[in-house]
Amino acid sequence: MLALPLVALAGPVRPAVADTVATMERHLDALQTIADQNNGNRAAGSSGYRASVDYAAKVLEKAGYDVTRQRFEITTYRLTERPAVAVVRPEKQRLRERKDYLVANFSGSASLQRPVVPAGGTRVPPPADGKGLKSGCSADDFPAETRGAIALVQRGGCMLTQKFENAQRAGARAMLLFNSGLPGEKEVVTITAENGNTLPIVFLSYRAGRDLLRSAEARRTVVRLDIRGKVLTKPTWNLIADSRGGDPERTLVVGGHLDSVPDGPGINDNGSGIALVLVAAQQMAERGEKPRNRVRFALWAAEEMGLLGSVHYVTTLPKHERQRIFAYLNFDMVASPNYVRFVDETLANPASVAIGDDFRAAFKRKGLVSAHFDSGGRTDTFAFIEAGIPAAGLFSGAEGEKTKSQQKRYGGRAGEPYDACYHQPCDTIDNINRRALREFSSAALTVVGEMARRKPAVPEATAARTLSSSPRYKGPYALY
Q: Which of 4, 38, 147, 426 lies at a CB distance of 3.0 to 4.6 Å from 48, suitable for a disulfide?
């Protein structure tokens, strides 16, 4: 039931790797220029994203593809004024946006000054094994003093929406949610509430939350919040281009997300993956390949808003069209400065692992080691796996820190993020690791080519949901 191992097949000579990387860099330069001309970003719903769609469509059309723009509506949240979070008692301190806090997506608006009341179940420092973290998971965690106050809650133990609902039922006027303090859960991350939420919600770093907790436990602590945001509905587009040859009853989808976050140009995240998808499409067309299987190149909208583009695509496909797709290959961040060669696969899904084996074999042919990574709902493989379609991809690392053992295997700098500019304004063309581009593109193009030409296996374990547990993230947004 596992996919067949890679085998050497006769075919046209591939362009030199140097040519491949140079072409990818031209695409990245173009995306950087688009961001520079459009308020520094290419976020879904923005003029920068629309220009990115136009650019990618022109590349694919020039290569000879008929390009479909799949339109759908997205609901976005935008801060209309710069937010402020400040301690006003016992000692004045203004928290720093992005460093100490981020306003939650779809946070309620407010201008208020209230005492901070910690929720029960909060544990600082957290238990080493992470067990027992349940702050705000029960209605009983919120004392009577929560009514009219700002609830202080720690991440962990249950879905974030459960914490939001409990705080609101307890009469909290706002909520400060701080990271758990476990390894990899200390800095600020992006979270989202449901559209229609009215509770003002701010996510804090572990350090900022810990300091507030200690202050609130020792004396009356008052915080001021100023948050002003609004909800907008806008159109956006996925781009789809099919190979001219290949059996449509056996379709391989190759994709990545085209949008950036609003805070930066997104050249590594995910201009690098898009450059790889575009090069794969260009090379197939230039060589005049007639693949055994149809290859569908897909550029997704609004991944950074919660995987909206890929979810829309998969969930609106007629059943017979979904059944035609035998695999999805995803490329999301393949040029991180302090990279690791991660193969993103779902261990609970044997067919996903089989695709991962193909990627590992492609790296190994070049004498390169790779590592398993399970994105757990953070990228566009999610919708395909949920629909029973085998999916895997490549990933070079985001905000996590490189370990000493990874430094020995891959080089780089232990104790530093894989990409210090992840979701930051500095994710520019200067953030790209050219060596990573070369290594990842070589492995990716090998696997795309082989899977396009071989008869696909019929997996047994993909008829229904195959995720082993609820994902911790949906796109960039933490769910619990």
A: 38
pLDDT of residue 480: 80
Q: What's this model's pTM, rounded to 2 decimal places? A: 0.88
**Do 201 and 288 have their domain in common?**
no
Q: Under DSSP, is residue 433 helix (H, G, I), strand (E, B) or coil?
A: coil
Count: domains in the chain: 2
Joined tokens for residue 243: 């190979």
- The per-residue pLDDT of the chain, averaged, comes to 92
Asked about 399 being catalytic, the answer comes back as no
Token digits for 340? 């690791």
Give the tens place of pLDDT for each residue, 284-314: 999 988 899 999 999 999 999 999 999 999 9
Both tokens of residue 39?
A: 């308020």
- Of 303, 304, 345, 386, the active-site residue reads 303
* Residue tagged 């719903």 (tokens): 45
- What tokens appear for 126 in the block? 């957290």
Do 89 and 69 fall within a single domain? no
Is 304 found in the same domain as 188? no
SS3 at position 110: strand
Domain, as residue range, for 409: 17-76+233-474
pLDDT tens for 23-65 read 999 999 999 999 999 999 999 999 999 999 999 999 999 999 9
Please tell me whether residues 336 and 457 are part of one structural domain.
Answer: yes
Of the candidates 222, 179, 229, 223, the residue with the CA atom closest to the CA atom of residue 199: 229
